[in-house]
């Protein structure tokens, strides 16, 4: 099989194409023929050497969609359409940047869908992160308001779509004024051009209050303190993304920045249940959830794909077609 291998961390030119023996599934594992995979910024950090515990050489990639080739348990017949994600994939063991991968059975989700492989591949990790942030971390409820900070990112766009389906008033940010109409087309009720300091503005909006019940922080620690200042009393910030490349705060005083009665949480991804992903896939098929895919790259274009992703040029999910 063909695989894209990293032997040492670095810039996108460290990727090497290699012919390898197809792996075999052991007990409690499933062999998947990969048809397509979504690209994730977490893979940039792994490629650069910032993901702890990664041993080289490594085939990275934290998600994929494809077909079952072999399930030794017999639970999933050959040819079953599946998605797999997270759980050490592409870090602790070889991941999706290949024609085949072996994944622990508990991470493989059988999905009934007629979506194209490319469209299907755009969904698992993007919606897992958005849904987990909204439902598990923020525990959003209908009728409330949310600010999606980093709205033009793939997770931001998925969060906008999901939040609207959950009955929330949705504000979203972009640093680029030219993206305002784009975000409104994606479902945002309010668009804020982000200069790093939103709390000083008039944040009154259609939900009837100044500030927001929830803030989904996708930029990272650069804007975290300001996001906390954008909350109404009793509001919650969830830090999920690090689009700005920084996830640590030095000499940070939580008593200064988290006012009494407000809350800070985080979401780092725990995978998704089969029923939850099936629900999302079905909603996409019915047109009930909007999915924005920016570009589909070929397997041979992985260097170009990482350069494009790292330059923050995408306005939606990036996908790689394998076969």
Protein architecture, described:
The protein is α/β, with parallel strands linked by helices. It folds into 2 domains: 2-122 and 291-321, Alpha-Beta Complex (Quinone Oxidoreductase, Chain A, domain 1); 126-266, Rossmann fold, CATH 3.40.50.720. The chain contains 9 helices and 15 strands. It has helices spanning 41-48, 117-121, 124-138, 154-165, 180-185, 221-229, 254-257, 274-285, 302-310; strands spanning 2-6, 15-19, 29-38, 63-70, 81-85, 100-104, 108-110, 145-149, 169-174, 190-193, 212-217, 231-239, 263-266, 293-298, 317-321. Strands 3, 4, 5, 6, 7, 14 and 15 form a 7-stranded mixed sheet that branches. α3 crosses α4. The mean pLDDT is 94.
List the helices and strands and how they pair.
Blueprint: E1 2-6, E2 15-19, E3 29-38, H1 41-48, E4 63-70, E5 81-85, E6 100-104, E7 108-110, H2 117-121, H3 124-138, E8 145-149, H4 154-165, E9 169-174, H5 180-185, E10 190-193, E11 212-217, H6 221-229, E12 231-239, H7 254-257, E13 263-266, H8 274-285, E14 293-298, H9 302-310, E15 317-321
Parallel strand pairs: 8-9, 8-11, 9-10, 11-12, 12-13, 14-15
Antiparallel strand pairs: 1-2, 3-4, 3-6, 3-15, 4-5, 5-7
What's this model, at a glance?
This protein has helices at residues 41-48, 117-121, 124-138, 154-165, 180-185, 221-229, 254-257, 274-285, 302-310, and strands at residues 2-6, 15-19, 29-38, 63-70, 81-85, 100-104, 108-110, 145-149, 169-174, 190-193, 212-217, 231-239, 263-266, 293-298, 317-321. With 323 residues, the protein is α/β, with parallel strands linked by helices.
